[in-house]
């Protein structure tokens, strides 16, 4: 099978798949190839936090022109996978001199499948882009065409808990990946000081409690397949639920916008995670670690992760805003590890702190950086002398 992911998350996804029990795991670019049985396919869809799709290849062949493509697809026994009364949707990705338009490849594939059913049964399946019986993925790399069934259906970032969004929402898979890349797994208090609609908070809570990320999802693609084994899926789901663990700290979310906080509260409640997350209307630039950790605040760690405005969709004075981030972290959050993602690479110059890590990612199509700042009480040199 092939699990698709975001750029920079390949290691995370490969690690997730190995922990779940996949074999033959191999990383690609924005994808990970692995082996598993039907039950594992169900488990990967339910439990992978950084996967966008789980594809199951069913055939591959050489194609040199559109006639080859049509005939090879037409000759494949599609009746083994769906009925003529069913529906289909086709996605295509092409890296080829002969095939340059993915939508055209999808159209020719649809024509071949529909024609086969019409010739054999007198009836043809319909196209349904939202809830098809079968979602088919066509991948052409030079002259090799791989045909896969999309076991996920809609993208796995659509967890099912997000009912309200803000102006610049973060993708759920991206949010989960940020939490995992930052190394946080529930071992201390967590703060998102610019939480918006609460996506980072929700993904962090699910990671802390080891809750399957797609537990709230309404439907997976494989549920419409002819061979869907509902009993096996329930066994997989129950086994995953038994691995949920206790979380002994608190996840905090700040935002200056009351409407955003209401949306966050709605999403968090939909995910049944409100017992782990505290929301507060608070300007990050007037906040401090003391408000969260009242006793021994210099000794106890705090993990910050946030998604500040980039000046792409939310208009702010970038120089002043990012300088204030640096000042607030330096003076108000000692002994904390702070991570944030930005798509404005120029803005990092204004923070006034030296990041200990920079990781290249993409937020949508926007090249971004996930940066880490280690905040010490006093100077870093003094900290090292005492260790």
Structure report:
The structure is a single chain. With about 375 residues, the chain is α/β, with parallel strands linked by helices. The chain has two domains: about 1-150, VC0802-like, CATH 3.30.2130.30; about 170-215 and about 245-385, Vaccinia Virus protein VP39 (Rossmann fold, 3-Layer(aba) Sandwich), CATH 3.40.50.150. About 30% of the residues lie in helices and about 25% in strands. The protein has helices at about 10-20, 40-45, 65-75, 100-120, 170-180, 200-210, 230-240, 260-270, 320-330, 380-385; strands at about 1-5, 25, 30-35, 55-60, 85-95, 125, 135-140, 145-150, 190, 250-255, 275-280, 300-305, 335-340, 355-365, 365-375. The chain has an eight-stranded mixed beta sheet with strand order 2-3-1-4-8-7-5-6. A seven-stranded mixed beta sheet has the order 11-10-9-12-13-15-14, with helices on one face.
Task: Spell out the key features of this protein.
disordered C terminus, 387 residues, VC0802-like, eight-stranded mixed beta sheet, Rossmann fold, 15 strands, seven-stranded mixed beta sheet, alpha/beta
Describe, in short, the structure shown:
The chain has helices at 10-20, 38-47, 66-75, 102-121, 172-181, 199-209, 230-241, 258-270, 318-332, 380-386, and strands spanning 2-4, 23-27, 31-35, 53-62, 87-95, 126-127, 134-141, 144-150, 189-192, 251-255, 277-281, 302-306, 336-342, 357-363, 366-375. The chain is an alpha/beta fold and 387 residues long.
């Amino acid at each position: 099978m092939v699990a698709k992911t975001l750029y920079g998350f390949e290691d995370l996804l490969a690690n997730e798949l190995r922990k779940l029990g996949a074999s033959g795991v191999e990383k690609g670019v924005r994808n990970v190839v692995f082996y598993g049985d039907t039950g594992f396919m169900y488990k990967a869809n339910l439990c992978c936090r950084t996967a966008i799709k789980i594809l199951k290849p069913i055939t591959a062949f050489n194609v040199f022109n559109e006639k080859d493509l049509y005939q090879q697809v037409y000759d494949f026994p599609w009746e083994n996978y769906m009925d003529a009364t069913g529906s289909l949707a086709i996605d295509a990705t092409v890296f080829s001199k002969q095939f340059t338009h993915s939508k055209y490849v999808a159209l020719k594939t649809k024509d071949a499948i529909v024609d086969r059913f019409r010739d054999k049964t007198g009836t043809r399946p319909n196209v349904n882009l939202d809830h098809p019986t079968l979602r088919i993925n066509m991948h052409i790399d030079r002259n090799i065409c791989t045909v896969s069934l999309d076991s996920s259906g809609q993208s796995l970032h659509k967890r099912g808990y997000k009912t309200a969004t803000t102006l610049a929402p973060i993708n759920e898979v991206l949010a989960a990946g940020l939490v995992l890349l930052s190394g946080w797994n529930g071992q201390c208090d967590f703060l998102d000081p610019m939480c918006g609609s609460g996506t980072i908070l929700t993904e962090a809570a699910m990671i802390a409690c080891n809750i399957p990320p797609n537990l709230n999802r309404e439907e997976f693609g494989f549920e419409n397949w002819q061979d869907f084994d509902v009993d096996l899926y329930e066994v997989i789901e129950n086994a995953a639920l038994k691995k949920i663990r206790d979380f002994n700290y608190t996840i905090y979310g700040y935002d200056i916008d009351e409407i955003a906080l209401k949306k966050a509260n709605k999403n968090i409640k939909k995910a049944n995670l409100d017992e782990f997350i505290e929301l507060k209307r608070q300007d990050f630039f007037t906040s401090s670690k003391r408000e969260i950790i009242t006793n021994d605040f210099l000794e106890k760690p705090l993990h910050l992760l946030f998604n500040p405005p980039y000046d792409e969709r939310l208009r702010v004075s970038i120089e002043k805003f990012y300088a204030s981030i640096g000042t607030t972290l330096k003076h108000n959050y000692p002994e904390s590890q702070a991570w944030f993602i930005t798509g404005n690479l120029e803005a990092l110059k204004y923070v006034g702190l030296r990041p200990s890590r920079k990781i290249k990612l993409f937020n949508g199509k926007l090249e971004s950086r996930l940066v880490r700042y280690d905040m010490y009480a006093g100077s870093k040199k003094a900290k090292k002398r005492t260790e």
